[in-house]
Task: inverse folding
């Protein structure tokens, strides 16, 4: 039996109107109607509330096909959440790190460059899920991908973002800031290619290689 028909059948068996069931699940009467007509489906949290209101388990409420759909949605949401966290971590590391450096060495942050560093962190964070460092490997493919990513990130940040913001925020002359950005960006690319690659290779060695325990057993 489809979920909508089950909700309808169980609701009537409990003697509840659509409005009464909606109050228990914290949704409108129209939402209950849409569920029963199979026009929309409840999310995982709403399924839990429905099962409690109708006095059945979630497993009894949904069939195997729908369970697979719900579990798939949950896993997708978890993957998306992990990706967003990685992106935010990269952005915040670049932003906070450059802010602290400027505050320590120059007394106050130069925000156009702070934002540029945050852009570098954001782009690298976005690509980090493709680089298998936590699996205990940092092979040639990972090194190439990392360096392509960091070159793109540094080019975007220092050839475009930093000089443009220098002009907008600080009214710096364009002839100065774009040359300055190009030199700084190129230097960063070389530094990250050498030091960044070395650090990531060393870090990967501290992780247990995926599947290594299985091979030993």
Result:
């Amino acid at each position: 039996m489809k979920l909508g028909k089950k909700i309808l059948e169980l609701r009537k068996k409990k003697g509840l109107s659509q409005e009464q069931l909606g109050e228990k699940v914290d949704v409108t009467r129209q939402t209950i109607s849409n569920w029963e007509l199979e026009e929309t489906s409840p999310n995982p949290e709403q399924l839990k509330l429905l099962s409690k209101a109708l006095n059945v388990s979630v497993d009894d409420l949904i069939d195997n096909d729908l369970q697979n759909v719900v579990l798939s949605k949950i896993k997708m949401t978890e993957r998306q959440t992990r990706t967003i966290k990685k992106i935010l971590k990269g952005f915040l590391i670049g932003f906070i790190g450059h802010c602290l450096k400027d505050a320590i060495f120059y007394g106050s942050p130069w925000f156009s460059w702070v934002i540029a560093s945050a852009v570098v962190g954001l782009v690298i964070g976005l690509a980090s899920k493709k680089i298998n460092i936590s699996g205990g490997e940092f092979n040639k493919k990972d090194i190439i991908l990392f360096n392509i990513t960091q070159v793109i990130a540094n080019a975007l940040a220092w050839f475009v973002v930093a000089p443009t913001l220098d002009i907008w925020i600080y009214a710096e002359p364009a002839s100065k800031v774009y040359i300055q950005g190009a030199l700084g960006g190129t230097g960063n690319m070389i530094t990250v290619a050498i030091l960044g690659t070395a650090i990531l290779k060393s870090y990967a060695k501290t992780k247990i290689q995926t599947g290594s325990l299985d091979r030993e057993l």
